[in-house]
Amino acid sequence: MAAEPVERPRKKVPRVMGAAGATPIRLPDPPRRVLLASSGVPFTPEVIGRAIELATPEHAKITVLSIARVFGTSLGIPHPGLQPTPGEWNEQREIVNEAAKILRRKGFEVRVAVARSRNAAKMIARWGKARRFHAIVVPDPVRPMWRRVIEGDLSREIERRCDIPVHAVPTPPPSRRRPVSK
Description:
Layout: E1 33-38, H1 45-55, E2 61-69, H2 86-105, E3 110-117, H3 120-130, E4 135-141, H4 145-151, H5 154-161, E5 166-171
Parallel strand pairs: 1-2, 1-4, 2-3, 4-5
């Protein structure tokens, strides 16, 4: 006598179709982790004030990040002359340490970091997603529309790349002129 085959119940595997099936992460309001980021521009008191305003209700942890610019294209051979110089690295460290000193005086737990990238918005968005920040604060220098089109809008590029709210604080444009000697 041959034994009849026994049908075993199949396990039901949930099907997730692409990224649309993932549930979005709820961001706490007010935020508990704030990223204060810059594309190499010094932080003004208004920008630091906005970060303090966001962080105060939950006494959030703040990370201060500045991006050193890498020149050239990613298609070519890496050339050391296109990397940030030691002077540029020191300038970026001074920017983040100065902002961190102000935030520590206000009683916040602060971390500092300096990174390098060809695309500052992409690097800031990566930091925001990887470290799971709840808010990003960036300085937004006032520039003419034609210059925004050519250089890109930092806050819009960050928002496009991550789902974290970006708070762009308008700042005066950095002066590229040399001081006049009298």
